[in-house]
Amino acid sequence: MPGLKQLAQREELMSAGHRACAGCLPMTAMRQILLSAGKDTVCGCTTGCVEVVTTIYPYTAWRTPFIHNAFENSAATISGAEAAYRSLKRQGKIDKEINFIAMGGDGGTYDIGLQALSGAMERGHNMLYICYDNEAYMNTGIQRSGGTPKGTATSTTPAGKVVPGKQQYPKPLTDIMIAHGIPYVAQATPGYPKDMTDKIEKALAIDGPAFMNVLAPCTRGWRYPMEESMDIARQAVETCFWPIYEVEHGKITITRKPKEKVPIEEWLKRQGRFRHLFREENKHIIAEIQADVDRKWEWLLKREELSQS
Amino acid sequence: MARRLILSGNDAAAEAMRQLDPDVVAAFPITPQTELMHKFAEFVADGDVKAEFVLVESEHSAMSATVGAAAAGARAMTATSANGLALMWEIVYIAASMRLPIVMPVINRALSGPINIHCDHSDTMGCRDSGWIQLYSESAQEAYDNVLQAIRIAEHPDVLTPVMVTFDGFIISHTAEVLEGLEDNEVRDWVGTYDAKYSLLRTDDPVTFGPLDLQDYYYEHKRQQVEAMKKAPAVIKEIGDAYGKLSGRPYGMIESYRLEDAEMALVALGSTAGTTKVVVDELRDAGKKVGLLKIRSFRPFPGREIAEALKGVKAVGVLDRSISFGAPGGPVEKEIKAALYGGGQTVANFVYGLGGRDMSMTDIKSVFEQLESIGAGKTPADEPLFVGVRG
Predict the structure, then answer these.
(1) CB distance A42–B72 less than 8 Å?
(2) d(CA A258, CA B180)
């Protein structure tokens, strides 16, 4: 697997000049994805920030083939392109090796696109689906999604006098994809680029469907200074809020175990979306979130041990 | 050499698909489309076709995968009915705007609710403004012929617009009929090979499909779809003529049946056109000057041709197998009235056959009787008359 220096020497396939915000980690994720995958890659993306900022007609930031269809069907669309590839290859009309990557934000993946994703994975297409998870519907103005953490203030779950932000924990999407029994599932974040790009290369090398859930902080929605994006992403791993791991044919490997687990409070307090949790009457929510992080982390450690035994 | 076949409408459409042999077919089952896909599945299982058969988890994904496949330069098809068409609605529009030459048989069925599996045209009439070409079929023979022509129409460089070929659920889809099929080699030559202008798979020449298109370009792109639709009639007729030379069955935008000296005419599409022809023959034998105008291409709508064909007719009855709630008439009637504006004909609208209610020869005769009294000077209703409804 190439190191960062080698990746940096590869052809840049995401052009400069797209319209993303400064500090946008979904776009950092896109660069890492394209550097890993190379130019013989067909990319698709759901409606959302990435699609909007990269493809305002008559411009495109994609130096690979790219298709945006609608909000909920990136997986189905790319599954069709991959089926076309298999058909044309079988007929001898094309012979080069091509990667197929479908992408979507958490809204397009956890929520409206879950059915299309599940179907494409079950059908066994040779494709990689990457969810760039920025934990809310950012493109439409920061509304809660099934991937939004408990306690988050969003436009549709504001921190009110009675209701302090989102009341539910996020849907365990990565576990749902593991339960599909596909050959490769991973969690990663562009905050750890080597880990992330290694996983992308591995996922693309595998014959069959693969899924990656990638935590990609959003400076606008999470409300932190834009220069802190990479650090916020890394700290999500160090708190064990976003463990980075991979599941190869059912075998779990946690690819980074923090030497010392950082308290979740340290991560929450840097983000405006959690500011209200630090009011006296809401502090119990922070304790609940910490307990949830601890429980899930312990359970992941146990599952890793079990799967490797 | 023609082959004599006994096939249902579904099997006839599946046979056409076997012969034209698309690269990708993505589909989800819905009654009454199911048997078309069962038949095609048998062709796949027996190795009779080369298509990748993508058995998706919904019609939304069926159209989405078909769009992905077509954008990757494949000949791509799907088929559906009613609620399935409604579920894929969003992507039906997107397929047209991407100018992907997809062909989709739609087996007409009433839209829910209440839920009903039988024929009416509410499904395809509802998406008449989606930017697809719509060819309606009177019989299994026409369903077969239309599928084979649709692929050439859709892929024509002047058109590059998807085509839905419709035929009536159960009435055509599930009824065995004697028809003539082309030989496999004739179809191979007829459809030729397809080389998409743009493809996702050409990684050395990357293109972006489906970009965000704002105030500065969206309007022009919609206008281009209008231009393609305007060019489509010439292509539909050219291909219809060529198909006539190949098969002995030429096709146009409309079919005029005994209209030459007709004083009364019905306008119909789908299987009811066939029933109406029999009634026209009987009434002609009884000395009545009646005829039929059958619409094959509803989109693009051949208004001028229709006005020409109905010139001299005194009373025109328009049959609508769907309702446009709150509108003064059904979708077909509104188009016909616009086409005949200033022509002097009296136009009456008859809604019929919703949810598969039978439209018998007796019903059609009664429609002609009402039309006769209208022709004799009785003012037509300013709203649709409902054929065969209780209460």
Answers:
(1) yes
(2) 73
Report d(CA B384, CA B351) in Å as an integer.
Answer: 6
Is B64 in contact with A86 (Cβ distance < 8 A)? no
Locate the domains of chain B by residue range.
3-247, 254-386
Q: What is the mean pLDDT of chain B?
A: 97
- The Cα–Cα gap between B290 and A274 comes to 77
Pick from B58, B77, B209, B219 the residue to mutate for testing the A interface (most A CBs within 10 Å): B209
B380: Cα within 13 Å, side-chain hemisphere? 26
Domain B254-386 in CATH 3.40.50.920? The answer is yes
- Domain covering B3-247 in this structure, CATH number: 3.40.50.970
Q: What is the pLDDT of residues B141-169, one digit of tens each?
A: 999 999 999 999 999 999 999 999 999 99
Considering only the beta carbons, identify the residue of A64, A87, A119 that sits closest to B57: A119
Residue A80 is nearest to which of B24, B94, B208, comparing CB atoms?
B24
Q: What pLDDT shows up at residue A174?
A: 98
pLDDT band at B382; cut points 50, 70, 90: confident
Q: Please tell me the distance from the alpha carbon of residue B154 to that of residue B164, in angstroms, as a whole number.
A: 10
Of B94, B202, B209, the CB nearest to A66: B209
Give the model's pLDDT for residue A2.
87
State how far residue A162 is from chain B, nearest Cα, in angstroms: 38
Q: What is the pLDDT of residues B240-277, one digit of tens each?
A: 999 999 999 999 999 999 999 999 999 999 999 999 99
Which residues in A lie closer than 8 A to residue B69 (C-beta atoms)? Answer: 80-81, 83-84, 87
Cα B95 to Cα A52, A96, A277, B254: the distances in Å are 19, 27, 46, 26
- What are A148-156's contacts with CB under 8 Å, separation 24+? A148/A106, A149/A241, A149/A289, A150/A285, A150/A288, A150/A289, A150/A292, A151/A268, A151/A274, A151/A277, A151/A282, A151/A285, A151/A286, A151/A289, A152/A273, A152/A274, A153/A272, A153/A273, A153/A274, A153/A275, A153/A276, A154/A221, A154/A273
Instruction: Provide mean pLDDT across the span B32-59.
Output: 98
The model's pLDDT over B13-44, given as tens digits with 9 standing for 90+, comes to 999 999 999 999 999 999 999 999 999 999 99
Q: How many CB atoms lie within 10 A of CB B56?
A: 24
| pLDDT score at B379 | 73
CB contacts < 8 A (A, B) = 168
Q: Does B196 touch chain A (CB under 8 A)?
A: no
* Confidence (pLDDT) at B1: 60
Distance of alpha carbon A14 from alpha carbon A32, whole angstroms: 9
- Phi–psi pair at A288, nearest 5 degrees: -65, -40
Residue B378 is predicted with a pLDDT of 73
Which chain A residues are within 8 Å of B66, Cβ to Cβ? Answer: 80
pTM for this structure?
0.98
Q: How far is A114 from chain B (nearest CA, A)?
A: 11
Q: Which of A23, A56, A268 is nearest to B218 (CA)?
A: A56
Task: Yes or no: say if B38 and B79 are a contact pair by the CB < 8 Å rule.
Answer: no
3-state secondary structure of B168: strand
- Quote the minimal CA–CA distance from A59 to chain B in Å: 8
Closest residue to A83, CB basis, from B54, B209, B217: B54
CATH number attached to the domain at A4-308: 3.40.50.970
Nearest to A60 among B54, B208, B217 (CB): B208
Q: Do domains B3-247 and B254-386 have the same CATH topology?
A: yes
Q: Does B26 touch chain A (CB under 8 A)?
A: yes
**Looking at beta carbons, which residues of chain B come within 8 Å of A108?**
none
- Of B169, B170, B171, B150, nearest to B161 by C-alpha is B150
Token pair recorded at residue A135: 């934990």
**Rounded to an integer, what distance in angstroms lies between the CA atom of residue A76 and that of residue A70?**
10
